Every structure is written in structure tokens, then in C-alpha cells.
From TrEMBL:
Name of this chain's protein: 4-hydroxy-tetrahydrodipicolinate synthase
UniProt entry tagged with the keyword Amino-acid biosynthesis: yes
A Gene Ontology BP annotation from the UniProt entry: diaminopimelate biosynthetic process
Function: Catalyzes the condensation of (S)-aspartate-beta-semialdehyde [(S)-ASA] and pyruvate to 4-hydroxy-tetrahydrodipicolinate (HTPA).
Pathway connected to this protein: Amino-acid biosynthesis; L-lysine biosynthesis via DAP pathway; (S)-tetrahydrodipicolinate from L-aspartate: step 3/4
Keywords: Amino-acid biosynthesis, Cytoplasm, Diaminopimelate biosynthesis, Lyase, Lysine biosynthesis, Schiff base
Protein localization: Cytoplasm
Enzyme class: lyase
Quaternary structure and interacting proteins, as annotated: Homotetramer; dimer of dimers.
NCBIfam families to which the protein is assigned, alphabetical: dapA
GO molecular function, one term: 4-hydroxy-tetrahydrodipicolinate synthase activity
Gene this chain is encoded by: dapA
Length: 296
């Protein structure tokens, strides 16, 4: 269970595979999760940004959680589920339901769009944390439209039910400030391209959509940093940077889904509108990064 062991290492936010008709393809999802679960990662994230949470219904999320639980089985591989919305009551309800459906923790994003005050955001997390399902707070101002102050972030991290934070704030300011103010809870990198810098600044790992491909190489980077071999880790990471940049050049997860579909890890690259398929020029640039082995 997540609150019994510290959050850290590599958490992979998973995609929600759709068929050519745009319907959820659970058979493809099961094969894909089965493969990921064998990779030696530290956890899975269902219904994150990469899982197209804005366009996947809550009923579909339930199917995804249940399928993930079944596949992960007895393995010690925690399942975090994105339950955060911009409505506190809905977030609480979803977090309680996710716990019943088999989640080990909830990834709760800072409430987006309504741009609440810091006080309102802290209260939002207090109510989510009171559900009993361990909560990971998710700071991603470029998507939410509001930035957590270090005081609010610290107030959230000091709550009993909050076990850590996914920091996608886009630079090292928040992470450094939390450390300076004595935060003891794990903060993980949520901005793939910044992984080495964030690990050096004290991050406990990463939530990395790009690690869906070439997973072993990301694990290697994390291992090298853990062993104190930062220069080697950074050099190994540099080999992945070109692919990471391409994966985020057009809206996530469209490039990733294309790569996964081309490798055979999922059956089809389809996203749901308003996300559309990637451009032909990006396909050409991604071609060299298609994982070699067919995983179909
Ligand atoms: O799905 C996620 O969780 C992630 N989302 C980020 C985003 O798309 O902005 C990227 C990160 O790798 C994980």
C-alpha cells in the first residue's frame, strides 16, 4: 500500500487505447499493461493527462482501474488514479470510488479553470485527503491556470493523507523552496525533460509519460542517479532527450500513442477530439524512436 512505503522511482502514466471507432479498447489495454507491469517500474498512473482524462468517462475509468488491478494482481505495483477535477465534491466522490474500484492512491490535480484562491485550493486537498485514499498532489500550472505558492504547497504536503507531490511546474523553483522550508514528503518530477535537474535538486523520481517507450532506459537513468552516478545518469538521459522533445512537440498523448501503436504495444493510435492525430512531419521524425521489438 502506498502510505506504507515512500513514493519514489518511476511511475508511468498510461494511455487509454481506443479502437478506430474511438471506443475504449480494453483488450489492447490489458496486453499493454501486462507488458509494462513486467518492466520493473515502481507504479502506474491511470487516468492522468496521458490517459486522456478530459475525454474518458468515469465509467470507463472504472473499467480501466479494474482491468489494471486484475493484471497487476499480487505484484507490489501501486496503481495511482487521477481523480482530481475542478469541483471539490466530485473529486471527493471520485477518490472514494477509486478506492472501492481498487486504486492504491489518487493523483489529485490542483483545481483548474476556476482559478481558486490558495485558501480554496488547500481546502480542496484537505477534503480529498480526508477520504482515506493516499493522495499525491499534482501541480501543473500551465494546464490549470493557477500556480501553487510554496506556503500552499507546504500546507498540502503536511496533511496526513497527502503522501507526496508530482511537480510539473516547469522549473526548479518550487522544489528548491520546499526543500529549503523543510518539506520531508517526496516530490517527483512531472516534467519529463527536466528529470536530471530535478533529481539533482532532490526529486524522488518521476511521473514520466515518455517512459512508456524505452522504459528500461529511463529506469537505468534513475538507477544511476540513485547510486550517486549523476554524470553517467545525465549522459544516459541525454540519449533520450530528442525522443522526449518529439513526444511533447504536439499535444500529449497523441505522439506517444502513435509510437506505441507503431511498436505494437497498443492496437491503434486514435485519440479523442479535441486531440487529433499527429502530423506527417512528426511521424517522420519519430520513426527512428519506434522501439525495435514488436510487442503485439
Ligand atoms: O499523465 C500524466 O500524468 C503526465 N502528464 C504530463 C502532461 O501531459 O503534461 C506529462 C507527464 O509526463 C505525465
Amino acid at each position: 500500500m502506498l502510505n506504507e512505503r515512500p513514493l519514489g522511482g518511476l511511475y508511468v502514466p498510461v494511455v487509454a487505447p481506443f479502437g478506430p471507432d474511438g471506443e475504449l479498447d480494453i483488450a489492447s489495454y490489458r496486453r499493454y499493461i501486462g507488458r509494462l507491469a513486467e518492466e520493473g517500474i515502481q507504479g502506474l498512473v491511470v487516468n492522468g493527462t496521458t490517459g486522456e482524462s478530459p475525454t474518458v468517462s468515469w465509467e470507463e475509468v472504472r473499467l480501466l482501474i479494474e482491468a489494471t488491478r486484475e493484471i497487476v494482481g499480487e505484484r507490489e505495483l501501486p496503481i495511482l488514479v487521477g481523480t482530481g477535477t475542478n469541483d471539490t465534491r466530485a473529486t471527493v466522490r471520485r477518490t472514494e470510488e477509486a478506492m472501492r474500484f481498487g486504486a492504491d492512491g489518487a493523483l489529485v490535480v490542483v483545481p483548474y479553470y476556476s482559478r481558486p484562491s490558495q485558501e480554496g485550493i488547500v481546502e480542496h486537498f484537505r477534503q480529498a485527503a480526508a477520504t482515506g485514499l493516499p493522495v499525491v498532489a499534482y501541480e501543473i500550472p500551465a494546464r490549470t491556470g493557477v500556480r501553487l505558492t510554496p506556503e500552499a504547497a507546504l500546507a498540502i504536503l503536511s496533511m496526513d493523507g497527502v503522501i507526496g507531490m508530482k511537480d510539473s511546474s516547469g522549473d526548479l523553483t518550487l522544489l528548491r523552496e520546499l526543500l529549503r522550508r523543510g518539506n520531508r514528503k517526496p516530490v517527483l518530477c512531472g516534467e519529463d525533460a527536466l528529470l536530471p535537474e530535478m533529481l539533482l535538486a532532490g526529486a524522488a523520481g518521476g511521473f514520466l509519460a515518455s517512459a512508456n517507450a524505452h522504459t528500461a532506459r529511463f529506469l537505468d537513468v534513475l538507477r544511476l542517479f540513485r547510486e550517486g552516478r549523476a554524470a553517467e545518469g545525465a549522459a544516459r538521459f541525454e540519449e533520450l532527450q530528442a525522443c522526449i522533445r518529439l513526444l511533447f512537440r504536439e499535444p500529449n498523448p497523441a505522439p506517444l500513442k502513435w509510437l506505441l501503436a507503431r511498436s505494437g504495444a497498443i492496437s491503434c493510435e486514435r485519440t479523442r477530439l479535441p486531440l487529433v492525430g499527429i502530423t506527417d512531419s512528426l511521424k517522420r521524425e519519430l520513426e527512428p524512436y519506434i522501439p525495435a521489438a514488436s510487442l503485439a
